[in-house]
Amino acid sequence: xxxxxxxxxxxxxxxxxxxxxxxxxxxxxxxxxxxxxxxxxxxxxxxxxxxxxxxxxxxxxxxxxxxxxxxxxxxxxxxxxxxxxxxxxxxxxxxxxxxxxxxxxxxxxxxxxxxxxxxxxxxxxxxxxxxxxxxxxxxxxxxxxxxxxxxxxxxxxxxxxxxxxxxxxxxxxxxxxxxxxxxxxxxxxxxxxxxxxxxxxxxxxxxxxxxxxxx
Length: 215
Prior knowledge:
The protein is mainly beta and about 220 residues long.
Protein backbone atom coordinates (compact mmCIF):
# COMPACT_ATOMS: atom_id res chain seq x y z
CA UNK A 1 0.00 0.00 0.00
CA UNK A 2 1.38 3.40 -0.95
CA UNK A 3 2.09 5.78 1.89
CA UNK A 4 0.33 9.11 2.33
CA UNK A 5 2.57 11.99 1.19
CA UNK A 6 4.81 13.49 3.87
CA UNK A 7 3.53 16.57 5.70
CA UNK A 8 3.91 19.62 3.50
CA UNK A 9 3.98 17.58 0.29
CA UNK A 10 1.30 18.44 -2.24
CA UNK A 11 -0.64 15.36 -3.44
CA UNK A 12 0.11 16.20 -7.06
CA UNK A 13 3.85 16.11 -6.32
CA UNK A 14 3.56 12.33 -5.90
CA UNK A 15 2.87 9.78 -8.63
CA UNK A 16 -0.82 9.80 -9.47
CA UNK A 17 -1.32 6.07 -8.97
CA UNK A 18 0.43 6.00 -5.60
CA UNK A 19 -1.59 8.98 -4.39
CA UNK A 20 -4.92 7.60 -5.53
CA UNK A 21 -4.10 4.13 -4.18
CA UNK A 22 -3.68 5.70 -0.74
CA UNK A 23 -6.64 8.07 -0.94
CA UNK A 24 -9.25 5.85 -2.58
CA UNK A 25 -8.29 2.19 -2.61
CA UNK A 26 -8.32 1.04 1.00
CA UNK A 27 -10.92 -1.50 -0.07
CA UNK A 28 -10.90 -5.18 -1.05
CA UNK A 29 -9.39 -5.96 -4.44
CA UNK A 30 -10.25 -8.99 -6.55
CA UNK A 31 -7.92 -9.97 -9.42
CA UNK A 32 -6.49 -6.46 -9.48
CA UNK A 33 -9.92 -4.82 -9.71
CA UNK A 34 -11.98 -2.99 -7.14
CA UNK A 35 -15.05 -5.06 -6.27
CA UNK A 36 -17.76 -3.74 -8.56
CA UNK A 37 -21.19 -4.84 -7.38
CA UNK A 38 -23.07 -2.52 -5.07
CA UNK A 39 -25.37 -4.99 -3.32
CA UNK A 40 -23.86 -5.94 0.04
CA UNK A 41 -21.52 -2.97 -0.04
CA UNK A 42 -20.91 -3.16 3.74
CA UNK A 43 -19.56 -6.69 3.43
CA UNK A 44 -17.47 -5.87 0.37
CA UNK A 45 -15.99 -2.70 1.84
CA UNK A 46 -15.58 -3.35 5.57
CA UNK A 47 -12.49 -1.11 5.66
CA UNK A 48 -14.29 1.82 4.04
CA UNK A 49 -17.39 2.55 6.15
CA UNK A 50 -19.25 5.85 6.17
CA UNK A 51 -17.28 7.29 9.09
CA UNK A 52 -15.83 10.76 9.59
CA UNK A 53 -12.98 11.61 7.25
CA UNK A 54 -13.60 8.85 4.70
CA UNK A 55 -14.18 9.91 1.12
CA UNK A 56 -16.82 7.99 -0.81
CA UNK A 57 -16.94 7.89 -4.58
CA UNK A 58 -17.92 5.67 -7.48
CA UNK A 59 -14.59 3.94 -6.83
CA UNK A 60 -15.55 2.81 -3.33
CA UNK A 61 -19.36 2.73 -3.56
CA UNK A 62 -20.16 2.46 -7.26
CA UNK A 63 -19.05 0.69 -10.40
CA UNK A 64 -15.43 0.48 -9.32
CA UNK A 65 -12.32 1.46 -11.26
CA UNK A 66 -9.62 -0.54 -13.01
CA UNK A 67 -6.37 0.33 -11.26
CA UNK A 68 -4.38 -0.32 -14.43
CA UNK A 69 -6.23 2.48 -16.27
CA UNK A 70 -5.55 5.30 -13.80
CA UNK A 71 -4.72 8.57 -15.51
CA UNK A 72 -5.88 12.10 -16.15
CA UNK A 73 -9.07 12.17 -18.24
CA UNK A 74 -9.77 15.05 -20.62
CA UNK A 75 -13.04 16.89 -20.06
CA UNK A 76 -14.92 18.88 -22.68
CA UNK A 77 -16.04 22.47 -22.27
CA UNK A 78 -19.74 22.68 -21.31
CA UNK A 79 -19.79 18.96 -20.51
CA UNK A 80 -21.73 17.53 -17.57
CA UNK A 81 -20.11 14.42 -16.09
CA UNK A 82 -21.45 12.15 -13.39
CA UNK A 83 -20.56 9.52 -10.82
CA UNK A 84 -23.19 7.15 -9.45
CA UNK A 85 -22.86 5.93 -5.85
CA UNK A 86 -24.84 3.65 -3.61
CA UNK A 87 -24.97 4.74 0.05
CA UNK A 88 -25.87 1.80 2.30
CA UNK A 89 -26.95 4.11 5.13
CA UNK A 90 -27.67 7.76 5.88
CA UNK A 91 -24.58 9.95 6.28
CA UNK A 92 -23.76 13.64 6.52
CA UNK A 93 -21.01 15.02 4.28
CA UNK A 94 -18.97 18.19 4.80
CA UNK A 95 -17.05 18.52 1.53
CA UNK A 96 -17.18 17.53 -2.11
CA UNK A 97 -14.37 17.56 -4.60
CA UNK A 98 -12.27 16.06 -7.37
CA UNK A 99 -8.62 15.81 -8.38
CA UNK A 100 -7.43 17.98 -11.28
CA UNK A 101 -4.48 16.99 -13.45
CA UNK A 102 -4.18 19.92 -15.86
CA UNK A 103 -6.14 22.96 -14.80
CA UNK A 104 -8.60 24.93 -16.93
CA UNK A 105 -11.68 27.01 -16.10
CA UNK A 106 -14.30 26.23 -13.48
CA UNK A 107 -16.51 23.32 -12.48
CA UNK A 108 -19.96 23.34 -10.88
CA UNK A 109 -20.55 20.47 -8.46
CA UNK A 110 -23.83 19.08 -7.20
CA UNK A 111 -25.72 15.97 -6.15
CA UNK A 112 -29.02 14.47 -7.20
CA UNK A 113 -31.14 11.36 -7.34
CA UNK A 114 -31.10 9.20 -10.45
CA UNK A 115 -33.72 7.28 -12.39
CA UNK A 116 -32.02 4.42 -14.24
CA UNK A 117 -34.91 3.80 -16.64
CA UNK A 118 -35.12 7.35 -17.98
CA UNK A 119 -31.42 8.18 -17.41
CA UNK A 120 -32.58 11.34 -15.62
CA UNK A 121 -30.99 13.08 -12.63
CA UNK A 122 -33.15 15.20 -10.35
CA UNK A 123 -31.09 17.85 -8.59
CA UNK A 124 -30.99 17.77 -4.79
CA UNK A 125 -28.34 20.44 -4.18
CA UNK A 126 -26.14 22.65 -6.35
CA UNK A 127 -22.94 22.95 -4.28
CA UNK A 128 -21.61 25.86 -6.32
CA UNK A 129 -18.59 26.57 -8.49
CA UNK A 130 -14.92 25.72 -8.01
CA UNK A 131 -11.90 27.26 -9.71
CA UNK A 132 -10.08 24.36 -11.40
CA UNK A 133 -7.55 26.43 -13.32
CA UNK A 134 -4.68 24.78 -11.42
CA UNK A 135 -3.74 21.19 -10.56
CA UNK A 136 -4.51 19.31 -7.36
CA UNK A 137 -7.37 18.40 -5.05
CA UNK A 138 -10.24 20.88 -5.36
CA UNK A 139 -12.83 20.86 -2.60
CA UNK A 140 -15.93 22.81 -1.66
CA UNK A 141 -17.49 22.91 1.82
CA UNK A 142 -21.00 21.48 2.08
CA UNK A 143 -23.46 20.31 4.73
CA UNK A 144 -25.46 17.56 3.09
CA UNK A 145 -27.25 14.52 4.54
CA UNK A 146 -27.86 11.77 1.99
CA UNK A 147 -28.84 8.12 1.73
CA UNK A 148 -29.57 5.40 1.97
CA UNK A 149 -29.82 4.54 -1.73
CA UNK A 150 -28.45 5.67 -5.07
CA UNK A 151 -27.18 9.21 -5.58
CA UNK A 152 -25.49 10.87 -8.54
CA UNK A 153 -22.60 13.32 -8.22
CA UNK A 154 -22.60 15.99 -10.92
CA UNK A 155 -19.76 18.05 -12.38
CA UNK A 156 -20.34 20.70 -15.05
CA UNK A 157 -17.15 21.97 -16.67
CA UNK A 158 -16.81 25.44 -18.19
CA UNK A 159 -13.58 24.58 -19.99
CA UNK A 160 -11.41 21.50 -20.62
CA UNK A 161 -9.29 20.45 -17.63
CA UNK A 162 -8.11 16.89 -17.05
CA UNK A 163 -9.47 15.00 -14.05
CA UNK A 164 -8.01 11.94 -12.34
CA UNK A 165 -9.93 8.80 -13.23
CA UNK A 166 -9.94 5.68 -15.37
CA UNK A 167 -12.10 2.96 -16.87
CA UNK A 168 -14.97 1.48 -14.86
CA UNK A 169 -14.78 -2.20 -14.01
CA UNK A 170 -16.45 -4.39 -16.64
CA UNK A 171 -18.09 -7.78 -16.41
CA UNK A 172 -20.99 -6.90 -14.10
CA UNK A 173 -24.23 -6.29 -15.98
CA UNK A 174 -26.35 -5.76 -12.88
CA UNK A 175 -26.24 -6.21 -9.14
CA UNK A 176 -28.35 -8.61 -7.14
CA UNK A 177 -31.04 -5.95 -6.67
CA UNK A 178 -31.59 -5.94 -10.44
CA UNK A 179 -30.17 -2.42 -10.89
CA UNK A 180 -27.62 -1.84 -13.60
CA UNK A 181 -24.13 -1.30 -12.28
CA UNK A 182 -23.54 2.42 -12.06
CA UNK A 183 -22.36 3.21 -15.57
CA UNK A 184 -21.03 6.78 -15.69
CA UNK A 185 -23.07 9.02 -17.98
CA UNK A 186 -22.56 12.45 -19.52
CA UNK A 187 -24.32 15.15 -21.50
CA UNK A 188 -23.74 18.75 -22.54
CA UNK A 189 -25.16 22.24 -22.23
CA UNK A 190 -24.10 25.84 -21.78
CA UNK A 191 -22.24 26.11 -18.45
CA UNK A 192 -24.16 27.66 -15.56
CA UNK A 193 -26.20 26.76 -12.50
CA UNK A 194 -27.19 23.10 -12.45
CA UNK A 195 -30.75 22.59 -13.76
CA UNK A 196 -33.46 20.89 -11.74
CA UNK A 197 -33.45 17.87 -14.08
CA UNK A 198 -30.73 16.54 -16.36
CA UNK A 199 -31.31 13.87 -19.01
CA UNK A 200 -28.11 12.03 -19.87
CA UNK A 201 -27.74 10.95 -23.48
CA UNK A 202 -24.34 9.24 -23.56
CA UNK A 203 -22.52 6.54 -21.61
CA UNK A 204 -19.11 7.77 -20.51
CA UNK A 205 -16.05 5.57 -21.02
CA UNK A 206 -14.33 6.80 -17.87
CA UNK A 207 -15.13 7.19 -14.20
CA UNK A 208 -13.88 10.26 -12.32
CA UNK A 209 -12.51 10.67 -8.80
CA UNK A 210 -15.38 12.85 -7.64
CA UNK A 211 -16.00 12.37 -3.93
CA UNK A 212 -18.00 13.29 -0.87
CA UNK A 213 -16.22 13.37 2.50
CA UNK A 214 -18.06 12.13 5.57
CA UNK A 215 -18.42 14.76 8.32
